[in-house]
Amino acid sequence: MFKAAKQTRIFQDVVEQIQETILAGKLMPGEMLPSERELKAMLQVSRGTLREALRVLEQKGLIEIKLGVGGGAVVQDVSYDQINESLALLIRYQKVSLRHLTEFRVGVEGRVSALAAERATPADVIHLKSLLEKARQFAEKGSDFQKGFVEVDKQIHLSLAEITGNPVYISLHHTVHDNIDQYYETFLVMKQREMEENLKDLGNIIDAVEKKNADEARLLAEAHVLRFNHYMENREI
Fold first, then answer.
1. Cα–Cα distance, 151 to 154 (Å, whole number)
2. How far is CA 30 from the centre of its chain?
3. Residues forming beta bridges with residue 74, ordered by sequence position
């Protein structure tokens, strides 16, 4: 299963070998890695190097180290949360500029809305409309309820991603929308006018989804992202 680690990059090689074995499906979630003694013999590394490598793999969420009798390294089911952790950190610490985020979102939000228009069921449309009604109620209460409005806006975007049935789009949407709030809080003025414009945009996108007009849904979603990025960039300046 494993071979002697390259001595010039021994620690990194141990991590990569075990990681690739897991990602290739040669070890499935719930299975135990070979014992520490077996791994040391196969990889020809010291106990210290092996244990350090296993700690790194545990931090990545690829394994769980169980202590005690019958313990060892157990392969974990890789989640999208773990895969997207680096992107989430970039967004949270604002290492991604507003412009970078917009370039990414324009393409992704547009494509997601188009796919949602192609794939939405009547039940999906009913759900989107129920969320839109919640957003409308917050908008009618005024700018003091902007946090509630923004939260429903997020739910609408995530629901559109869910409708695509594509786990990559779903995961990316969760990562972006779970970490974008600080940009809104810093740069976006969500007063009555902005809430009403946002509500109109969302309503038009949902109408396009209901009509199964993919091109219209894509263009509306792209315009929606660009409009609010323009507001935020002006505030940033």
1. 5
2. 25
3. 32, 64
